[in-house]
Amino acid sequence: MMVMTGMGRRVARWMAGLAAVACCVAGAALPAHADDGPVPVPSTPPTAAPTTPLFPGRPIHMRANFEFGERAVPGQQRSQPTAYLLLVFSDWGKGRSLTEQECQDLVSTFWSGTGPDYQVEAAVKYDDCQIEAYYLGEARHAFYSLDESGHMQVRPPMAYLNQIATSFDNLVFDRLDFDVTAMNNAHCNANPSKEDLDLLLNITHMSTCVWDVHDGATIPATDEPLMEGDVEDYFTGKLAGTVGPFTELNPPINPFTITPTPTTDPAAGASAAASGDQSQRGESAFTGLLVGIGAAIAALLLVGTGALVVALRRRK
């Protein structure tokens, strides 16, 4: 066995450093994988219905959490009377992650737009796409009705959520959590898999219904009220609830109701073609960058190997 000293060791160290630099350069040239982070939400609604099925060939799971009561709202210093909806999309296929771009596509399609009493946020968290919608003031009447006798009914937007679910190629809508505050003598409709009714919270009550398909429940598919009972003074006082019927959910605009445009604007077609050309040029440039990096690494390694051979021969 031959032991390298002097020049041989210096060349070996140089080769190791070269390999490390090559790995760093190659890694920096590759596109980064999007992890957790906020997703921009467009203020304008979609102008065309989505092309279905969405996410072809990918197993997606969706769950929803609807809270009717009071909670913190982005941009507000104190908790506000709110109807809150959380939608979570998860990819259960290989890799099990949704990118920020895919999450932005989902929120742009299904929950964009603006309103005086409406806010929405979206983010990729734990490889899932999470969309949070907040409805304040009179916008909450899309989810509740209250008559003069004090009978109150509450509903999440189940018809729309099921339309979203069926637009995917392979989606399982597997869980709905539903909480209502300031209602007493509550009753859950549509056969939930779990319910916890009339829990006392200091001066008011809260009730919870859960539909979980893994526990044998069927996710409700219509906009029929899922909980009803007697309104409490806390709702008409602290939570500023008002007597009135259900109203239409708006925003968001339901993209499935958008009538397709019969003709294509030539300018739009030209713009799309230009965009495609730019995309192809970008891909070609990226491929060329990788080829160039590979060639440079190969040349450096070849030079290093030659130097090592020369050094070893001189030691003999």
Shape descriptor = globular
Tell how many strands the DSSP assignment holds.
12
Q: End-to-end distance, in Å?
A: 13 Å
Look at the structure and give the mean pLDDT. 81
**What helical percentage do the residues reach?**
25-40%
- Biggest sheet, spatial arrangement of strands: 1-4-5-3-2-8-11-10
From N to C, what is the helix and strand string?
HEEEHEEEEHEEEEEHH
SSE class: alpha+beta
What can you tell me about this protein's structure?
This protein has 316 residues and is an alpha+beta fold. The chain folds into two domains: 7-30 and 269-315; 37-260, no CATH class. The chain contains five helices and twelve strands. Helix 1 packs antiparallel against helix 5. The longest helix is centred in the last third of the chain and has 50 residues, at 266-315. It has helices at 7-29, 100-110, 158-166, 233-236, 266-315; strands spanning 37-39, 60-71, 80-91, 118-125, 128-136, 144-146, 151-154, 171-181, 183-188, 194-201, 204-212, 227-231. Mean pLDDT is 81; it is low at 1-34, 268-287 and 307-313.
List keywords for this structure.
316 residues, alpha+beta, 2 domains, 8-stranded mixed beta sheet, 4-stranded antiparallel beta sheet, 12 strands, 31% helix, disordered N terminus
